[in-house]
Amino acid sequence: MRVPLPWLREYCDPPLDARAIEERLTMTGTKVEAIHHHGVASTEGFLVGRVLTAEQHPDADRLKVCAVDLGEAEPAQIVCGAPNVAAGQTVAVARPGAVMPDGTKLKQAKLRGVASEGMILSESELEIGSGGEGIIVLDEMILDAELAPGTPLADVLPIAMDVIELEITPNRPDCLGIYGVARELHAATGAPLAPAPWADDPGSAGPLAGADVVVECPELCPRFTARVLEDVTIAPSPPWLKARLTAAGQRPINNVVDITNYAMLLSGQPLHAFDLDRVAGARLTVRRAGDGEQVQTLDGQTRTLDSEMVVIEDSEGPTSIAGVMGGARSEVQPDTKRVLLEVASWNGPNIHRTSWALGLRSEASGRFEKGLQPEQCLHAQAIATRLMEKLCGASVAAGTIDIGPEPPAPAVIGLREARVRAILGVDVSAERQTEILAALDFSSIQTPEGLEVSVPPLRREDVTREVDLIEEVARIDGLERLPATLPARRGAAGKLTHAQRLRRAAEDALVGCGLHEIVGWSFTEPALLDRLRLPSDHEMRQVVVVENPLSDGQSIMRPTLLGSLLDAARQNVTRNGPDVAIFESGTVYRRKDGPLAGEHHALGALLTGALAPRSWRGETVQVDFFAAKALLGALLERFHLDWSVRPGSWPFLHPGRSAEVLVNSRGADPVRVGFLGELHPLVADSWGLERTAAFAVDLGKLAAAAEPVVSFAPFGSFPALRQDLAVTLPVSVPAAAVIERVRAKAGKSLERVEIFDVYSGTQVGEGRRSLALALTFRTLERTLTDEDIAPVREKIVAALAEIGGELRG
């Protein structure tokens, strides 16, 4: 929300500059996003001038050479191309040296051979309106200011102002109006607050002749008010109004439309002006739309509605979409004479749904969806009615249509002084609390325990509990002044859980291996499932669908980390970073029975490109299955887990280079905790990648399998005995199965088994290969001999024979 500072100062004017106001507002909870300067950078060089003569340029049909009195000894000669420039006009002039809003510094110039000593200005060139191609004619626009030639232009036109841009949180719709921000500034600085701009209401209550309103869905329209203004003259708005609207981000149109926008910006409550003579039957009905019903809105688009939306119609059909945008059929036209001014309150969630469903967001919908209060309707009516009288020459018809129940009585909340002290850790006197709350429009009376506070209507949805009042006191009294104290604790000691410690250690382990961490979105697109080649019955297809997604690309919760890892890898590869080693630690989601989704914390890693930079020793090794397996081993062995892999199949992995990861969970059967492998070439190509390897594991299952406390055994003092074994097996037998058999038969004396050589060739026969095993034996009691190991060796050879193994040599 953009707030022109001169407009804000009209209601609260502390002796502070823009930066100091920014600090006070931000420190009290009304965050200032930025401070902008609107209009000219410096008012120097901008003057009021009077056109003495306007002669045709000798060499240009569209230019005139003007003699302009600027209060100096001699008139200035200025070449002007505006079609409406004429002798006798009082105009806005920029002299050479003046800096325009776009940063251009004017210089004395020649236009078609004729010297020009400045520039006669239009509204758009000063950023005080759109103004078309014509120049500003001050004596037609300004009737109550001194317009003598040479008068500084800033004295008669708002050509420069600071604008503060606010981020208004959804719980504070009262600050969506200038006066609401002024109240915050008043409370934050103690500067006087001017009376509310709606305090003087020229309208009257009672029946309204000449128009009628029926509300058929009061649950969606808590209040509907309307007034009739007659003898309206449609004309451009005065410069001060145009300048304020332009600085606030609005486009001036005409005086009636500008007044509705001005009243909305001042009060926070949107309004809409109907041309009463174009309202068929002079009767408006508020009702739910029919499914498929259509209405043409002010932007010229035809919108198709449904039964959850609300329309305002006359006897010929819908004229506007309630709370979102008016209709084209009854909008104010240049010949409008009678205006029906509608100010209504709408159900916030319903307006939000309507705006989202239609893809139509407006200033009005953005305010209504945050929950405006019914009392604000007459605030805006009062402001707009007074301006319509002043700027449009309108006369106000007697009476006001006001449909809706009486607003609820203000809520009364007790505020205990002891509770304030307990929450904030400091004493804030009852007198200071009363002062702060009064500045924010709360009324209070003193009680033995503290205060009884009445909540103002505009804060009824935000302040509902005692702690909310304490927050109001704290933020205005100064959150920065609160002491830094620890909360009261009863013997609790802060520490990480076993799962949290394991998660951090796992992340540190991968960083130590040279990987970089990424953070991806928890939302993803449904197309990811097809890109990963997942069949319709795959477990990863059990996705959680977002009911109200921000976009189609974020409409489901991710079932795997692989999507964000692949996206990050593609980003790097397409930006000349072909060697990628990344990991992500995050939550993945699956649909399950019941109201809650299934989720677990996963850890995934992805490698593509070379394992190390190229060097003088030759070509580098590219990533493959075994590189990812080594990385996974470094991770799992960090937690002293007994793990293994066995062939597995996933649609997104290479059929011959994939495996499932198993861990032995404290003596129980092995548990599958994830996958490992090279990506299927079609999947890798879908992301523009070449050979790529990845793994992902469930950290929750790892935490369940890992011992919370690691036990260390003493090193043996007796030497180890190594035995090498070469065995031929069918190539279909995985090495993991060989190692598993060896461990099962070797007993406790086997300390380690490793495969140190693989051979395939004619000597071992077609379809077979030779694995060379290094077996290390050791006991804590004595030195082992060959005789001790011989029976164990025979058991191992016999076990391998069961899977087709033959001893070589």
Mean pLDDT: 92
Count of beta strands:
38
Give the overall shape, derived from the CA principal axes. elongated
> Order of strands in the sheet with the most strands?
26-29-30-34-33-32-31
> Can you give the helix content as a percent range?
25-40%
> Strand share of the residues?
25-35%
* Uncertain segments: none
- Secondary structure tally, helices: 21
Largest sheet: 7 strands, mixed
Rg for CA atoms: 39 Å
Gap between N and C termini, in Å? 85 Å
Structural class: alpha+beta
Q: What does the model show?
A:
Helix 6 (239-247) crosses helix 7 (255-267), helix 7 packs antiparallel against helix 10 and helix 20 crosses helix 21 (786-801). The chain has a seven-stranded mixed sheet with strand order 26-29-30-34-33-32-31, sandwiched between helices. A hairpin with a 2-residue loop joins strand 7 and strand 8. The chain has 809 residues and is α+β, with helices and mostly antiparallel strands. The longest helix is centred in the middle third of the chain and has 17 residues, at 376-392.
